[in-house]
């Protein structure tokens, strides 16, 4: 994963994590592992953890401590009503952004096409 | 809380925060050496750049200990926790717990300066 991809991912990571949690509850390690499987190989577990702390503080997720066979209990996160609302807002923003950027690319491709 | 205890706390900071700080230090001592080195590195950086008030600081190091204890149990290598750019990781982490009093003051100054500039621009 390149530097540009990492930078771009930063702004959308919160929405991505909320979207994962909309599918099912998960703990930090699972979320990081899933992202790595999807090709986001540079994601640090600590970055995901920092984000989970933030969305917990903002009341977007519910947290349950589940005992673990080895080590301290795991914190399992699940999306709550406020989180779902916030996720809807994220999808709206995402649609807006991706449409405008695609439009921009189309315009530029068209202009270049005419110039030749 | 007794009068005496309250009086002492205004001078030394919260006793509860101190207790939590000592508990955190004890947790760090239990970590395997490489995780301990990593946590102490983050702790040092937080001391210089982190939030000024004790309550936010102890909350932050508690959460930090949770992260590293869990990672040690899972066998996650330190580099996978902190990433290629540890400064960025700590800055992201830190942003959840408020600003240092120094930074807060400077940001207020910056905002004030812009408000003054705006007013000056409106004068004929």
Question: What are the SSEs and their pairings?
Answer:
The complex is a heterodimer of chains A (116) and B (124).
Chain A: H1 3-23, E1 26-27, H2 28-37, H3 45-57, E2 61-66, E3 74-79, H4 81-115
Antiparallel strand pairs in A: 1-3, 2-3
Helix pairs in contact in A: 1-4, 2-3
Chain B: H1 3-12, H2 15-30, H3 33-49, H4 54-74, H5 78-82, H6 86-94, H7 101-122
InterPro entries (chain A): Metal_resp_DNA-bind_regulator, Tscrpt_reg_PadR_N, WH-like_DNA-bd_sf, WH_DNA-bd_sf
Domain Transcription regulator PadR N-terminal (chain A): 17-88
Organism (chain A): Microlunatus elymi
Q: State the distance separating the first and last CA atoms of chain A.
A: 34 Å
Mean pLDDT of chain A: 91
Profile the largest sheet of chain A.
3 strands, antiparallel
SSE order of chain A, one letter for each helix or strand: HEHHEEH
Q: Tally the beta strands of chain B.
A: 0
Percentage of residues assigned to helices of chain B: over 70%
Helix content of chain A: 55-70%
Radius of gyration of chain A: 18 Å
CATH fold naming of chain A = Arc Repressor Mutant, subunit A
Regions of chain B with pLDDT < 50 over 5+ consecutive residues?
none
CATH superfamily of chain A, please?
Winged helix-like DNA-binding domain superfamily/Winged helix DNA-binding domain
Q: Determine the number of helices of chain B (DSSP H or I, runs of at least 4 residues).
A: 7
Kindly provide the name of the CATH class of chain A.
Mainly Alpha
Give a count of the beta strands of chain A, DSSP E runs of length 2 or more.
Answer: 3
Strand content of chain B: under 5%
Structural class of chain B: mainly alpha
The global form of chain A is elongated
Strand content of chain A: 5-15%
Uncertain ranges of chain A: none
The largest β sheet of chain B comes out as:
none
Q: Which structural class matches the secondary elements of chain A? A: alpha+beta
